[in-house]
Amino acid sequence: MNKVLEQAAATTSLSALGASRAMPLVGAWLRLLRPWQWLKNAFVLAPLVFSGRMSDGAAVVDSVLAFVLFSLLASGIYAWNDVADSAQDRAHPAKRHRPVAAGAVSARSAVVGGGLLVGTALAGGWALASAYGAMLIGYLLLNVLYTFQLKSLVILDVFSIAAFFILRLLAGCAAIGVRPSVWLLLCGGLLALYLGFAKRRHELLLLQQDSRHHRAVLEH
After folding, report:
1. What is d(CA 167, CA 170) in angstroms, rounded to the nearest whole number?
2. Residue 110 neighbours by CB distance under 10 Å
3. 129: helix, strand or coil
4. For the whole model, what pTM was predicted?
5. Cα separation, 88 vs 215, whole angstroms
6. What angle is formed at CA 144 by the lines to CA 143 and CA 147, rounded to 5 degrees?
7. What per-residue confidence (pLDDT) applies to 204?
8. Does 142 have pLDDT greater than 70?
9. How far apart are CA 173 and CA 189, in angstroms?
10. Is residue 202 within 8 Å of residue 184, measured between CB atoms?
């Protein structure tokens, strides 16, 4: 009887130890995938609202599904970007705590996990609508170009950020089959430019003399 109780206690202790180790890992993955950043993808829902099709059940379902798929794609790209930017992130007072930069998630795991999310999003997007799938591919390609080239070019880096938001609007239009409004794209793009320049100014004020070590364009 005592042996049974000892074995049960040992099993419980191992389970508790495994759970305690798993929790920090789950938290690290949540920080890596940044679900709170999905708020940006609300731009995908904007065409549904401004097209007046919120009473159309099929359009609502397609729009919500488009939002979910775009969010999966964005999280996968966040994981990849954290791997690419890990060296620069270590020079940032806040970003140095990101999972890859801090060593909480390995670069290999981040690349594989990001690939699964990106692949799922692209497959689902193409199944939803070929035009929507094309927008997801465009968003992915622009992110790759931004990561390895555009983010190092002054002014163009902020215009790239604005382009990301415009692609969200275009993707939302493609998902429900409506023609994008010029005013919707213009207002969305100008709002994104404002947010982009405000972000760069915040980085300059926060990092001051060390800003160029974090982001090359801040030197100019």
Report:
1. 5
2. 25
3. coil
4. 0.80
5. 7
6. 80
7. 76
8. yes
9. 15
10. no
